[in-house]
Amino acid sequence: MGMAALIVNLFVPALRARRHVARAFSRAFFRGAGIPITIHGLETLPRAPCVVVANHSSYVDGLVAVAALPPDFAFVIKKEMVRVPLAGLLLRRLGSEFVERFDRHKGASDARRVLRLAATGQSLVFFPEGTFDERRHIRQFHGGAFAIAERSKMPVVAVAFHGPRDVMPPGGVMFYRRPIRVDILSVLEPAGARQRSRELIAAAVDEPMAPA
């Protein structure tokens, strides 16, 4: 399915059309795998550009986001994904931005590039935990998404993913037929959104917030 999505997108010139294609293939994947996915609160999404932040617990989170959200969002992803065969190319075709997590100088340069993208009116999706592990908790949120939102004067939208960890557990290679639900929780002002969005998501998925 991923190979088919990539091949089709290589011949689709318009970015939004490529995102439509990816969304259709993502939804087809979940249907074909027998994994029901439901989305609640889409009407909550602002019509204006915004920054979506969601919890991160599985390698399928990106697929879930592509399937659930309108084709108006660029994904901001850890730079290691560039080196993943096929996936890196497909993500680039979808207008994703890749950011360095470990080199502060490169990370600052990447942040400026994302800020320029936001300045064009592009909505963004972040997984502000940055990574996940086998524990069921909400890790500390990195500040990049919220700094971008504040400097770009874009609202922050807190989104909770239920079920991706059960579909593909951390460290696993098998998919399991478990339901996935996406809840669009709240639209927040950028100031204070880092802590508030984390609290909302933790409460929604009923997982503790990891200590600092």
Written description of the protein model:
This protein has 212 residues and is of the alpha/beta class. It has a single domain (2-205), classed as Glycerol-3-phosphate (1)-acyltransferase (3-Layer(aba) Sandwich). 40% of the residues lie in helices and 17% in strands. The chain contains 8 helices and 7 strands; from the N terminus they run H-H-E-E-H-E-H-E-H-E-H-E-H-E-H. It has helices spanning 2-10, 15-32, 61-68, 87-93, 104-119, 144-152, 164-167, 193-205; strands at residues 37-40, 51-54, 73-78, 97-99, 123-126, 156-162, 180-188. It has a 7-stranded mixed β-sheet, with helices on both faces. Helix 1 packs antiparallel against helix 2. The longest helix is centred in the N-terminal third of the chain and has 18 residues, at 15-32. The termini are far apart.
In short:
By secondary structure, the chain is an alpha/beta fold.
Number of strands: 7
Total helical segments = 8
Number of domains: 1
The arrangement of helices and strands along the chain is HHEEHEHEHEHEHEH
Q: Strand order, biggest sheet?
A: 1-7-6-2-5-3-4
Radius of gyration equals: 16 Å
N-to-C span: 39 Å
The CATH architecture name reads 3-Layer(aba) Sandwich
Query: What's the CATH topology name?
Result: Glycerol-3-phosphate (1)-acyltransferase
The first-level CATH class is given as: Alpha Beta
Fraction in beta strands: 15-25%
- CATH superfamily membership, which one? Glycerol-3-phosphate (1)-acyltransferase
Helices, strands, pairings?
Elements: H1 2-10, H2 15-32, E1 37-40, E2 51-54, H3 61-68, E3 73-78, H4 87-93, E4 97-99, H5 104-119, E5 123-126, H6 144-152, E6 156-162, H7 164-167, E7 180-188, H8 193-205
Parallel strand pairs: 1-7, 2-5, 2-6, 3-4, 3-5
Antiparallel strand pairs: 6-7
Helix pairs in contact: 1-2, 1-4, 2-3, 5-6
